[in-house]
């Protein structure tokens, strides 16, 4: 699982997120349903981006689990109006989180997840030498 190790820069992150969002939009327009695999791609891109910020990738996993619990199980436990309000908040919070990951500069020096990624687009995460 080399994709979940190392670090990627902001440009690479935005390219991955942009392609995933286009895939979601095209799938929603053509097939009348969004493409769940694109969300997984964004999750996979978030992990090395978090590494570039010096954070563990488990933060992305926690957000993903919370969203899945909300989308697939929340309607059974929460009254309908409260569930709609909660979904609305989630729809507003997710773009903020994506923007924060893509907007915050990574650490300039080596960190626990490896050396800084190269400038520009890079499709291969920079993996620590001991991995």
Textual characterization of the structure:
- There is one protein chain.
- The protein is mainly alpha-helical.
- The protein has one domain.
- It has four helices and no strands.
- The termini are close together.
- The model has no long low-confidence stretch (mean pLDDT 84).
Describe the structure concisely for a colleague.
The protein has 131 residues and is mostly helical.
Topology overview:
Blueprint: H1 10-31, H2 36-52, H3 58-77, H4 80-103
Helix pairs in contact: 1-2, 1-4, 2-3, 3-4
Pfam family, one: DUF805
Keywords: Membrane, Transmembrane, Transmembrane helix
InterPro entries: DUF805
How would you describe the shape? Answer: globular
Largest sheet: none
Question: Given the helix and strand composition, which structural class is it?
Answer: mainly alpha
- The total strand number stands at 0
Number of separate structural domains: 1
């Amino acid at each position: 699982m080399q994709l979940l190790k190392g670090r990627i820069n902001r440009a690479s992150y935005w390219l991955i997120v942009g392609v995933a969002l286009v895939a979601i939009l095209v799938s929603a327009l053509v097939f009348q349903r969004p493409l769940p695999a694109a969300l997984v791609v964004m999750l996979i891109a978030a992990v090395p981006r978090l590494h570039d910020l010096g954070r563990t990738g488990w933060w992305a996993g926690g957000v993903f689990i919370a969203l899945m619990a909300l989308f697939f199980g929340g309607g059974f436990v929460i009254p309908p109006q409260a569930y709609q309000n909660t979904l609305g908040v989630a729809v507003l919070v997710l773009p903020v989180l994506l923007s924060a990951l893509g907007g915050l500069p990574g650490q300039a020096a080596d960190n626990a997840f490896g050396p800084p990624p190269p400038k520009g687009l890079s499709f291969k995460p920079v993996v620590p030498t001991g991995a």
